[in-house]
User: Fold these one by one.
Assistant:
Number 1:
Amino acid sequence: MFAEISRNSPNCDPTVPHERLGVVFHHTVITFEETIALMTDPARKVSYHCVIAPDGTRCTLVPDEHVAWHSGVSSFRGRAGCNAFMLGLSFAGDTYVAPLTDAQLASAFEWLEPRWAHHGWTLDWMTDHRQVAPGRKDDLNPAEWARLHAALATRFGKTS
Ligand SMILES: [Zn+2]
């Protein structure tokens, strides 16, 4: 089990119930600590549901039940505005500079497992910021997305 901390981000919408249909993966570029500072600053208007440090430590920033502000102008499976229906899970660091660590992947799976079962998720509801905001965002590095996607398929199966 990886360490898990909680810092409430004001950058969310608690008034609309979150649909939790799947997950948009991100990387932060900046460090874990810098990410927490940024996301708890109300002037910044950005947040993830959770961010994962290179050592696997997770920080919950917005409860799953609330809409976090991680994807901005985006669309997935024919629907605009991913924040309303997709959770945002982010890896601290820059996947163009360094690959995801084994601890980050293991911690992400620890976060995903209970949610996967509870929400009845399927692999085709997993995506990343680059794919939901093409030309505007570049996270994750496609090679790291491919590695993560393959690990998800191994763990959770390829069925849709
Ligand atoms: Zn992103």
Note: The radius of gyration is 14 Å.
Number 2:
Amino acid sequence: MPRRRIIPVFVPHMGCPHQCVFCDQRQISGAQAPVTAAQLRAILDAALSQSGAGAELAFYGGSFTAIGEADQVSLLEAAQPYLRAGHLFALRCSTRPDCIDESVIARLRRYGMQTVELGCQSMNDEVLRRSGRGHTALDCEHAIALLKSHGFSVVAQLMTGLPGSSDATDLESAERIAALHPDGVRIYPTVVVEGTPLAAMYQRGIYSPQALESAVNLCARMWELFRYEEIPVLRVGLNPSESLHNAVLAGPYHPAFGELVLGRMYYNLAKPLLAPHRGADTITLCVAPRAVSRMVGQKKTNLRALEQEFSIKSIKISAEPLEEWEIRLQTEGNTGIVDRIDR
Ligand code: SF4
């Protein structure tokens, strides 16, 4: 899926019929009040005046298709002149799997919606129930199939560390979502946000959040699974914002969570390459220029851990014109490629 310039407009809790235990959309999206059609026009005018290039408008933050029909249509209609003029080339929205049906799809198509992001969160019904989601895994399957059959791009959102979940249930959720072939996925580790039901559960000791390290490991395995299935992972970890930063009580929140996960994936990929060279003096790992910091790890943690694990005196990293995910290994005195991983 190519990267596009997205103008995000947040519709916090507008139309949302539920209270998921982890959710305070007003904090997470940084927005406090529902957007009106007039405000939407002002947002678009301001965003589009900064760049002549077209953009995609995204209704994020709530359950767009659960908004009252009149409000939904008023927002969609406000976007139409920008679409007709070519200033916007597409619309996308996020919503719940149980807020998609034939009539919703007809409306979205009529107004030029192309991509729907579905908050699936888990494919385990017990986890969904304990998280207050109010829908089932079957709802996710139906919604994805219906949207795809009508030609929409579908992005599935998953969460790790929800109440009642484990690494096994989260990995199984990733496998079930991958089997539905969405056009992209986002993975969010659960964090405890002040004022949410999850915060009360945490304070009463009936919910324990994932440790940062565990969440990074699990998300790396999930990302690897999607990468293997050639399903793009569009984001891992919540968008950092000041309001969210101030509201997080506990859990694996890190402003560069995605980079931590990418670092772990490179670490995992390098291990089988290094295993036959245990005890070597110097090893050079060659990676693409943009992968150097990921291979090195934050504060060189990957290098130091790999040196220790394989008793290698010194591991060096070299930027080479390689593909993303490609790692080549050179040993001292042998500048040729002695081994590579590019899966
Ligand atoms: S459905 Fe979405 S907006 Fe509504 S409470 Fe759950 S996470 Fe929040």
Note: The longest strand covers residues 113-121.
